[in-house]
Design a protein that fits this description.
elongated, 40% strand, 131 residues
Length: 131
Amino acid sequence: MPSLSSFSIVVPAIVSLALAGCAVGPTLPQRLEAYVGQPESVLVQGLGVPTRSITTGGIKFLAYDWQSQTVIPGSPGYVGWGWGGYGPGFGVLGAGWPTPPAVITTGCEATFQMSPADTVVAFTLRGNACR
């Protein structure tokens, strides 16, 4: 039979390993914050060529768009036969309508404001996938 001291070593080790599996990396805003103060070349090197670039009022903005689509399969419908109710019930025929697949689109737009010296001043995020 294992001793109590072996449990005091094994149990915390197992709990630590289990909790390590729940660790989550930095969020998108935390990752993008690293670009603030960096030159445009570092931004483009890290994120690639921007989707759009616009200069207005002497201020340059670079925008990056990310989108993904998930397909949720539909249901072919069903027809079933069975006995229902309580006691000596009757046969029941059931049917369900088929449902088409659904396509879910999520996206995020990150817009970076550049300084006159072409360094990142700030950024904003828009969309339902900017986590």
